[in-house]
Amino acid sequence: MTVDSEKTSIEARIAHLVRATVGPQDGQGTIVASCRTVLNEVTRQALTSSEGGKRLRALLLLDAFDATAPNAEPAGFGGNGDAADVRDHVLDLACAIEVFQTAALVHDDIIDDSDLRRGKPSAHRALAAATHSDPIGNGLGIMLGDLLATASVDIANAAARHLPSSDAVVAAFLNMHREVEIGQVLDLAVEMTPLDDPRALAEASLNVFRWKTASYTTIAPMELALIAAGVSPADARGKALAVGKPLGLAFQLADDLLDVIGSSKNTGKPVGGDIREGKRTVLLADALEAASTSDREELVHLFEASHRDDDQVRHVIELFGSTGAVDRSRERIGELWRQSRTAIEQLELPDDATTTLAEACARFVPLD
Predict the structure, then answer these.
(1) Any domain includes 165
(2) Which of 250, 273, 279, 312 has the highest CB neighbour count under 10 A?
(3) Residue 289 to residues 72, 283, 299, 312, 330, Cα–Cα distance (Å)
(4) 244-295 pLDDT, tens per residue?
(5) pLDDT by residue (tens digit) across 151-171?
(6) In this prediction, what percent of the chain has a pLDDT beyond 70?
(7) How many helices (H) and strands (E) does the chain have?
C-alpha cells in the first residue's frame, strides 16, 4: 500500500471513529432541544478539527508494526485473529494517536491564543464565531479537547482487546497522555525562564520536546507498534525510546525551524508565529549564545516586550540567520537523526524492514 492510499484509509477511519466516540453514547440519556444545537456544533467541530494533517504518527505506527510483526513470535498473537484482522486493529490504534493529537492541538491553540490550525480557524475561534461569544468559544474549545482525548482512549482500548498484551497497550497509551500533559506544564514553565543563560534555556526547551512532543509523536507510535507485534512491553519501551527520543527532538527542532524559514502555505500557520508569541525556543537560545552584545541585548528586549509587530518578527528571523542559530539547528537535527538511524539499525531487522522503518522515520526530518 502506498503512503497516499494509507493516508486515505487513516483519514476515513478517523472520521468514522470520531463520529462514533465523540458525543453521548446510545442509552446514556437525551439532550434537551435547547442545548442540542451547541452540542451539535461541538461534534461538527470535532470532525473539522480531525481533518487533514500529515498523519506522520499513524504512518509511523503502521510502518513500525509492518516492519516488526513478521519477526514476532507467532504465539504472541494469542489467537486474537488472523494477520489482516490484527492489522485492522493496529490501524485503529494508529488513529487513536491522531485523535489524541487533535485534542492536544485544540488545547494548545487556546493556550497560545492561536487563530489558525492547518490553514483553517482554530477550534475555539470557530466555536466562538458559531456562538457569537469568545468566552463561550474558549470554554467549548476546552471541552472539545477533553472529548477528543477521552475518545482517543476509547478507541485505543477497543483496539487493544484484539491485540497481544492488551493491558500493556492501554497502559502505554495512558502513559503517553500523562507525558504530554506533563510536557505542556513544562512548556508553560519554560516561558518564565530568564534569557541570561542561553545554555540553560536550550536544555529546558529540549526537555520540553522530550515530554510534550517526542512522547506521542515518535516514542508512543514505536512502543505501541512493537507491543502489537508481540514484542515484550519492557523491550518495546526500551527500543521505542532509543529510536523515538532523538527522532522526536529532531522533529520539533525542524518544526520550530520551519516556523522561521517556511511559509504559511506549507505550514498552515503564520510565519514567525513562535516569535510573535515570544516563545522561548532552542533557536532563540542558540541566537542569544552566538550573538554580539548589541544583538543579544536587542533580542532580550524584543522577547521581553509584551508583543512583537511584523517588522520586529522579520528582524528576529534575520538575527536567527546572521547569528548562526538556523545553521546550529540544522546541525542539531542532523546529529539527532544519526542517533535515531543508529538505533533503527541496532534493532537488527531484515534489510527490507529496516528500510521501511527508516523511511517512515525520515518523514519527521524533511529538512535538507
Answers:
(1) yes
(2) 250
(3) 48, 10, 11, 20, 16
(4) 999 999 999 999 999 898 754 555 556 788 999 899 999 999 999 999 999 9
(5) 999 999 999 999 999 999 999
(6) 93
(7) 17, 2
Nearest to 268 by CA among 109, 153, 154, 100: 109
Examine the pLDDT at 314 and tell me if it is beyond 60.
yes
Expressed in angstroms, the distance from the first to the final Cα of the chain is 27
Using CA atoms, how far apart are residues 286 and 320, in angstroms rounded to an integer? 8
**Tally of domains in the chain:** 1
CA–CA separation, 327 and 340 (whole Å): 20
Cα–Cα distance measured from residue 166 to residue 156, given in angstroms and rounded to the nearest whole number: 10
Rounded Cα distance between 321 and 277, Å, is: 19
Inside any domain, residue 367: no
Residue in 207, 228, 225 with CA at minimum distance from that of residue 163: 228
What average pLDDT does the segment 68-78 reach? 53
Grid cell, residue 355, equals 528500510
Residues 6+ apart with CB under 8 A from 153: 96, 173, 174, 177
- Residue span of the structural domain in which 96 resides: 3-362
pLDDT value of residue 271: 79
Bridge partners for 233 per DSSP: none
* CATH number for the domain that contains residue 95: 1.10.600.10
CA separation for the pair 46, 48 (Å, rounded): 6
Which pLDDT score is estimated for 20? 95
Would residue 220 be called left, alpha or beta, if left means φ above 0 and alpha means ψ between -120 and 50 degrees?
A: alpha
Q: Average pLDDT of 213-220?
A: 98
Residue 368 forms part of a structural domain: no
Least confident among 124-133, 202-211, 263-272? 263-272
Answer whether residue 187 is part of any domain: yes
